[in-house]
Amino acid sequence: MDVKNINELFKQDLSAINLGLESFADNLKNEGVKAIQVQWKPPAGGNMEIAGLLDKYDAIKIKVGTDEANKKAAEIINKGKPTLIDVSTAGESIPGMKKNMILHAGPPVTWDRMSGPTRGAVIGGLVYEGLASSYEEAEKVAASGDIIFEPCHHHSTVGPMAGIVTWSMPVWVFENKAYGNKSYCTLNEGLGKVLRYGAYGDEVMAKLKWMESDLAPIMKKTLDLHGEIDMKNILAQVLQMGDEGHNRNRAGTSLFIRELAPYMVMLDEPKEKISKVLKFMHENDHFFLNLSMPASKCIIDAAAGIEGSTIITTMCRNGTDFAIRISATGDDWYVAPATMVDGLYLPGFTEDDAAPDIGDSVITETVGIGGFAMAAAPAIVKFVGGTPKDAITFTTKMYEITETENNIFQIPVLDFRGTPTGIDVAKIVETGILPAINTGIAHKKPGIGMVGAGLVSPPEKCFLDAFKAFVAKYS
CA–CA separation, 149 vs 147, rounded Å? Predict the structure, then answer.
């Protein structure tokens, strides 16, 4: 362009599109120039190693058909039909369960590396099973090498917080009617000083024994009378009623009571027992969590093992590590240190009391509920912190790292748009956007229990490692 044309250009009204430092756009605006700031950053945050892997991935995904594989995974997720079919015990139903086995949340972890709440729940679980006669003896038994510790996920199971499952514990049994796979989860004890938050003691043991002797049998008889329950339909309803299916479960618990109550009152059981069960559910808004989790597990497990797919099929943590698995690499774990939760604390507790992020409940996010559906539950910010606007922002961001929108789970405030569904590890790496997770907070020491709830960012490393493994597998 010659000088004359340049001079003519600067006589015109200019408009600018700025990529990069916002101060450039601000300077233009200060001079009266229209300027639009584009929210852009280099792929992989400018990490040259990861950027190189993304270049390789562009070729690999064409070669192995990743787009088609991810569409297949998303279709499987959307077609999943999680159905509550039974109430049983871990020993009777969970595949591979043994009397000297304790299942825990998160990826594999040994006793010496277990977090405080996981240790506390293991101690309580050993006393509950009669494998130790005291809490002091339980610590020795746990460290003896006689107890087998395995992740819930290795046994088609999920557990909230510490996620401890032992032989005698009652469990919900789910079946994915579309694909035939099953999943399992214990019954929810409530909040506060409970085993899943790492607490133990006479009060905790008494509640667990009541759940085994009264709650579970009444639930089983009621379900037998009612028949199987389509849990996906209930999950769709709760999103219309202000729940997100992870940390806000008031509507879900209410709908479940409504579903079972007419059949429960028909049982040949003392009225006092039935009344206590209904009261327990009524006073425990999180009762539904232990139903939404195995429902989610049941849905997502059917999408595992798809060649070429970068969809995340497991996210979990145990208070020591955070880990994921992706569809294409099957049972391989990608692990990084668990992060701390930014949250609200119960009276008398502070962030100094908190254990790192813990629990299998983040399985809900893999199918489009939980943190990915926070826009449906603005009131959850009273429990985990933030503002209603934040809840909407969290959900809308998640569309950038997911494969599809859910065909059943819809959000009223977003004009009934389907929730962001099918987390794509490649999109996480490319955008730098991490999954939104809301969660409870356990005390860092064994035996105390819940201290708060909040929001947490998972460690980036496990997503990068999974992506590296995918590229390496198909290079």
Answer: 6
Q: What percent of the chain has pLDDT over 70?
A: 92
Classify burial at 238, counting beta carbons within 10 Å of its beta carbon; exposed 0-12, middle 13-18, buried 19 or more. buried
Amino acid at 19: L
- Comparing CA positions, the residue from 133, 137, 187 lying closest to residue 164 is 187
Confidence at residue 47, expressed as pLDDT on a 0 to 100 scale: 76
| Residue 247 vs residues 22, 113, 192: alpha-carbon distances, Å | 37, 27, 14
Q: Please report, for the chain, how many H helices and E strands are present, in that order.
A: 17, 17
For the CA atoms of the chain, what is the radius of gyration? 24
CA gap 90, 97 in Å, rounded: 7
* Confidence grade of residue 43 (pLDDT, cut at 50, 70, 90): low
Q: Which domains occur in the chain, in start order?
A: 3-40 (no CATH), 47-77+303-474 (3.90.1700.10), 82-295 (3.90.1710.10)
SS (H, E, C) 143-186: HCCCCEEEEHHHHCECCCCCCCECCCCEEEEEEECCCCCEEEEE
Comparing C-alpha atoms, which of 326, 359, 303 is closest to residue 463?
A: 326
Of 201, 204, 169, 174, give the one whose Cα is nearest residue 187: 169
